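=== Structure Prediction Worksheet ===
Name of assembly: unnamed complex
Input type: mixed (protein and possibly other molecules)
Chain count: four
Listed entries:
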Amino acid sequence: MYSSELIKGTLKTIVLKLLSETKQMYGYEITLKVKELTSNKIQITEGALYPTLHALEKEGIVSAEVINIGKRVRKYYTLTPKGKKNANEKVNEFIDYINTMKFLLDIKPQVG
Amino acid sequence: MYSSELIKGTLKTIVLKLLSETKQMYGYEITLKVKELTSNKIQITEGALYPTLHALEKEGIVSAEVINIGKRVRKYYTLTPKGKKNANEKVNEFIDYINTMKFLLDIKPQVG
DNA sequence: CAAAGATACATAAGAATATTATGTATTTAT
DNA sequence: ATAAATACATAATATTCTTATGTATCTTTG
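=== Predicted Assembly ===
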């Protein structure tokens, strides 16, 4: 588990990436998938995720569809066409950013 | 230039890494160095940096020394012993985190 | 079968961190 | 002389996350 500050600002990108792979997912499913894919290293809290999903919906990046499972409710999210384009851009920018940071943090000690 | 949200939570780590390389730096110098090392991709704002440096000083992670350059003032920061240990841990954790994120975001589209 | 844990949503108070704007003052370049 | 760069600082605001709380259903386990 990473200290919480590291996750800041990455949540939207993670969500967009997952949605661009699997077409439709519901919130709780996203938390499980991220835990699984990262071997429990990244754990998305629901208090962060649900407001983020609502924000993405408001921005027209995802659309939501409520489905009944027995007496329980699931809210499936899908990328809109606008969202698909946006997702690619954001993910690519983030990968670029990661590479930049890796370069910056891998620099060896210098004399001086 | 990356969209601003990406930088969130990384500032302290960048500062600690630079100080662990070069022993002592002043604030403005840090902004220039990061710009240079990242080919202008990461630009630290002074409004973010100075409060961060003050916080690190309060936590006993860095110590500060004011130097006069002509009639102007520079405030040089150095890692304390505690800070050196802390810097290594944080930088390593961050590199680990970056690798995890890269894995997560490089996953190829899946059928389903 | 009762209790605990997992599933599934939601929101609100508070903390942390950054942006943007503003301010002061000196030094260097045009 | 004026603009830009150097060098510090802080305040108001915005963003984003944590922690806590709430509701309700379904599944596992002693």
